[in-house]
Amino acid sequence: MKLIKTRINFIKGFVVTCLLCSQLSFAQQVKELELYAVNYPPYMIIDAQGVISGIDVEVTKAAFAAVDIPVQILTAPWKRILKSLEYGYIAGALTCSYRPDREKFVNFSDKVSEANQVAVFKVNADVSELINFDDLHNFKVIAVEGWGIQKELERSQIAHDTTQEMDNGIKSVVFRDVDVFYNGELATLYRARQLNLQDKIKIKRFADKKSNTFHLCLSQEFSGSENLIKQFNRGLKIIKASGEYDKVYSKYL
User: Fold this and answer.
1) How confident is the model at residue 26 (pLDDT cuts 50, 70, 90)?
2) Do residues 140 and 147 touch, judged by C-beta distance below 8 A?
3) Do the beta carbons of residue 27 and residue 69 sit within 8 Å?
4) Rg (CA), the chain
């Protein structure tokens, strides 16, 4: 009987050791994970010197650091990032919103952050007639060209103008004859503060729209992608439990 218990304890110890070794060897195999980002403050911020920071950047680095995986954040145009993810030319991208069509080539992490898509008005504008998303049909709207929210306007057949950058969208409602800038709430408020225009605008959410979640996206063609997602999710839980996640948010909001 004592011999059987000894063997069982030995087997349990062996299994635990193997699991720990496999995790360690996996972390050692990943020399430095290269992930890509675009300028989308406050989630991702790329300054004039090319320094990359922001909520999702810091959270991603911290989550991977918690599981001993080094990460480097680089930047490229968003359309190129998506194509590179599809063909496995890069490992992954930050602040990637869920889209059903992306499931074919991307593995999504647990939620990293979220955004509310809102209507941005001039501070003294009458917003009483805007309640649901479809009410945008009654306003002169602008959105950033190529972004998912601009594509949403196209799919909903809501007439709108486009701009190449967020700054121009904010300025369009403050200084020009545009009623609504359709954009993410935190991103708009963060940038408006930097432009010293936070007192010139107001935000209104739509009664029929839910928050849009952001994730770490890894290419399914990238070796070890599924395991990396599991490691990242584990790291994310660690930094949330430790309070580090909340500290990152407090720096930017």
Assistant:
1) very low
2) no
3) yes
4) 22
- Could you tell me if 92 and 214 are in contact, meaning their C-beta atoms sit under 8 angstroms apart? no
Selection from 237, 235, 229 nearest residue 61 by Cα: 235
CA distance 129 to 16: 62
41 phi, psi to nearest 5 deg? -60, 150
Give the residue numbers spanning the domain of 52.
Answer: 31-114+212-252
Contact status, residue 105 vs residue 228, Cβ threshold 8 Å: no
Token digits for 199? 């007192």
Asked if 216 and 197 sit in the same domain, the reply is no
pLDDT at position 226 is 96
Which pair of tokens denotes residue 2? Answer: 């004592």
In a domain, 13, yes or no: no
Q: Rounded to whole angstroms, how far apart are CA atoms 236 and 115? A: 18
Residue 141 has pLDDT above 50, yes or no: yes
Higher pLDDT, 138 or 5: 138
Position 252 pLDDT exceeds 90: no
pLDDT at 240: 97
What are φ and ψ of residue 117, in 5° steps? Answer: -80, 125
